[in-house]
Amino acid sequence: MKYGFFDNDRREYVITDPRTPTKWVNYVGCLAFGGIVDHTGGALLCAGDPGLNRITKYIPQMPASEFKGTTLYLRVRDGDEVSVISPFFTPCLDPCDSYECRVGLSYQKITTEIAGIRTEVTIFIPAGEAVELRDIRVTNLRGRPVEIEIVPVVEYSHFDALKQLTNADWVPQTMMSEKLSLKYGRMALLQYPFLRKDDAVNFLSASRPVNSFESDRKAFLGDNEYGTWACPGALAEGGRLSNCEARRGDNIGALAIGMGSVASGDEVRTVTMLGQDRRERIPFVVEKYSDPAEVDAAFGRLADFWQENLSVFQCETPDAEFDAMVNIHNPRQCYMTMNWSRYLSLYQLGIGTRGIGFRDSSQDVMGGMAGAPSEAKELLRKLLSIQKPDGSAMHQFYPATMHADCGDAEEEKEKGKLVYGDDHLWIVSAVCAFLKETGDYGFLDEEISFYEGAIPIDEREGGSVFDHLQRALEWTKRNVGRHGIPLLGYADWNDTVNLPGDAESLFNACLYGVGLRELTDLCRFLGKRDLVARYESDHAEMGARVNGVGWDGEWYVRYFMESGEVLGSSDNAHGAIYTNAQSWAVLAGFAPDERALSALDAVNERLNTRFGIKLSGPGYNAYDPEIGGVTTYPPGAKENGGIFLHSNPWVMIAETMLGRGDRAFEYYSQINPAKRNDDIDLFEVEPYCYPQNILGDEHPQFGLGRNSWLSGTASWTYQAATRFILGVRPAHDGLVIDPCIPSAWDGFSVTRKVRGATYHIRVSNPGRVNSGVVGLAIDGKQLDGTCVPYFTSGEHEIEVTLGEFGAVREPGSTHSSEMAVR
Prior knowledge:
Layout: E1 4-7, E2 12-15, E3 25-30, E4 33-38, E5 43-46, E6 70-78, E7 81-85, E8 98-103, E9 107-114, E10 117-124, E11 131-140, E12 146-155, H1 161-166, H2 170-174, E13 177-181, E14 187-191, E15 200-206, E16 212-216, H3 217-221, H4 233-236, E17 251-262, E18 267-278, H5 282-289, H6 292-310, E19 313-316, H7 320-340, E20 356-357, H8 358-368, H9 373-384, E21 396-398, E22 403-405, H10 423-438, E23 447-449, E24 462-464, H11 465-478, E25 504-505, H12 506-526, H13 529-549, E26 559-560, E27 566-567, E28 577-578, H14 579-587, H15 593-606, E29 608-609, E30 612-613, E31 616-617, E32 643-644, H16 648-657, H17 661-671, H18 680-683, E33 691-694, E34 705-708, H19 713-725, E35 728-730, E36 735-737, E37 747-754, E38 757-764, E39 773-778, E40 781-783, E41 787-788, E42 795-802
Parallel strand pairs: 38-42
Antiparallel strand pairs: 1-2, 2-8, 3-4, 4-5, 6-7, 6-12, 8-9, 9-10, 10-11, 11-18, 12-17, 13-14, 14-15, 15-18, 16-17, 19-37, 20-21, 21-22, 23-24, 25-26, 26-27, 28-31, 29-30, 32-33, 33-34, 35-36, 36-41, 37-38, 39-40, 39-42
Helix pairs in contact: 7-8, 7-19, 8-9, 8-10, 8-19, 9-10, 10-11, 10-12, 11-12, 12-13, 12-14, 14-15, 14-16, 16-17, 16-19, 17-19
C-alpha cells in the first residue's frame, strides 16, 4: 500500500502519495466530451474526435513533475507575505502535509493540506454536458485570517492536435482568446481558433467574479518565458494578471478568483467550468453551474448512473481482490473501453490514423453491455455499418464522420492485403452475446447498410443484422489457403505478425469455429434447422482441417506461411509456441480431450510466469522482415514473448471448459492488478485497472506493466470471471449457472439482473470441488441441469450445490452459452 489503497465501500481507489511511478489516470465524461484526468489534476480533454477536436495540451512524454493540460494555484496573502501554493502537488512540488486523490467512478477528488491551507477539488463532467466542472473548496487552517485567490490554469492545444506538435508558425498565428462578460460580475475566457468549421468555442469560467485573467503563456510565466510553471512570474509578483486577450501565441486560460479574507477554520467554495459550446449558450451553462445546488445534483446523478450500471452483477467470494475488481473496477473499465475503444489514452492519443477499431469494439461491447444495453446496441449498429458487402470489415472508423479505413493495412494496398483476417468474425460473438443478454431478437431483422466507401449511405447495399452475421462467416469460408485454413490477410488479432502472400492463421480458423457455434446455437433457438445442419457441417469440416494439419505433437501451431513453413512449432527456435493457438482450439470446440489437455498443459509449462501468461516464446532475437513487427521488440516485450494480458482470460475460459477451476483462478489472480498493490514500484501502472501488457521473463524489467485502461483485457477478464469462473451467464433459453471455481472456496454468492428480473444466487461447495452442479433450486423448486428459465420481473432466490457427481457434458457440446462448455 505504498501509494494507496482500495476503499471498496466508497467504490474508490485512494492515492496517498503523489509521487506514483507513472501518471495514474481516471476517465471523466464520454467520447462526445471528456477524457482523462491524472492524479495530480492534469487533464486531456477532447470533444468527439481526440485528434481533430483536442482542447487541452497534455503531452505524456514530458516529465511527470510538469503539469499537463490543467492545474490549480492558490495565492495566499498572510499579512505582508504572499505565497503561491500548488494544491495538486504539480507543478510547484510543495511538500504536502497530507495528500489524497480519490479515483472514483467518473470523478476525481483531490484533497491536500499544504502550509495550513486545505484544498478539496472534485472533478467531473455532468452527464450529457460538454463542460468539465471543478468543485473547489478551500479551508484556512492557519489559525488566523488570510486572503485567498484561486487561480485555475488551462494550457490549450490547437484543436488539430498533431499540428500543435508539427507547425510552429501557422498554429500560433491562429490561436486567440477573448473575454466574454456575463451577469453578476462573472466572465468567461474564450479560446477561439477562428479556423474551426463549427461555431463551438472553448471556454473557461467560474461561479464567482474574476479579479483578473491571462491568456498568453509568455506573459504568465514571465521573464520572456524563462519563468517556470513551478514559479510563474505573474503569480510571484503578487499583483493582478494582465487581462490580455491574446491574438496569437501559446494560448492559456488563467483566472484569478478572489475569495476575500477567510477566517481561521472557514471554508470557501467556487466552481470552475472548462467546456466547449456555442457562444450563445455559454452564459446559460455558466449561470446553471454557478448554483452549488445544480453542481451537487449533477454529481448525484453521476452516482445514480453508476449504482444502476454496477448493480447488474455483484458478487461476494472468499477473495477480496477478486470482489473489488468484479464488483467495481473491472466493469467500470469495461464501460470506458466500450465508449473510448483505443481512441484516447496516455498511450493511444487519437492522432493520425487511430480510429475506433472494429475488432476492438466488438470485444469491448461484450464486457459493457449488461450495464448499458442501449449504448451497446448503438455501438453494434455502428460496427455493422462498416462491414463490407462481401462480409469482411473495415478495420476502424471515425465516429464523427463514420468514415472507415483499413488501418495499417492501408500500406499494403499494392499487395492486395487490405483485410485483417479476423475483424469481421468478432461481430458474430458480439451480436449473439447481446441477444442473450437482452432477448432483443427483433434486432436480427433490423436493416443496416454495408460500407461502400464514397457511395452515399442511402444508396449503399443493405442487409438484416442476421444477414451481416451470415456474410461474415461466408467470407472466411471462401477465403482459405493451401491447407484449407483461413487466410491471415494483413494480420489477425496479433497485429505484429505480418506474413507475405497467402499465409494462413490457425487463430482465424478457431475464431471462425466459435462463430459457427454461436450461429448454430442461435439458429437452433430460432428453429432454423437447415442452417443448424449447415453450420454444424462447416464446423466439423474446419475442425478436421485444424486437427489434420495444425497439431504439432504437444500443441497446435499458429501460422502457415505461403511457402508451407510453419510458425508456432517445436521446430522453430523462436516463437515455438503461441498461447492463442492453444486456448482458441479449445474455445472453438476443435480440440479433442487429449489434445486440449496437452495444449493447455504446454501453455502452463512453457509460457506461464508469476505475472501472467506470455503470448509466445521463446522471443525472437533479431528483426525478420518475413515475420514482421513482432521481431522489432526485444525478447519479453509486447507480442514478442511479453505477457500480453488480453490473451490470458482466453486461457482462463479454456481451463474452465476442462473443469480445471484451480488453474483458471491461478491465472486470474496472476494478472489481477489489485494484487499488485504492494508490488507497485515494479508494476508501475494503476492497480485499479488492467494494462495491455507486462514485460515477460526474458526482459530485464520483468513485471513492468504498460498501456493501461483501454485494453480488451478488461472485457475478456470480466467475462472470464463472471461467466466462466463464477459461471453465471445469459443464454438464449435461460440463465446458466455452472461455476468452475478454486477447490479452496466453500461457496460464493451473486446478484444478477437480466431481462427485467433479479436473481440472488447462492452457491455452496461442501465437497471443495472445482465444478459440477448436483443441485439447483429456484424459489424453493428443484430443477434439473444448470439453466434457469428467464423471468420477466421480480426477485428470485437460487440455491446451487456443487459436488463430485455433478452432471458432465460431453466435449464439444453446447449449452446455450457464449461458448461451448465442457
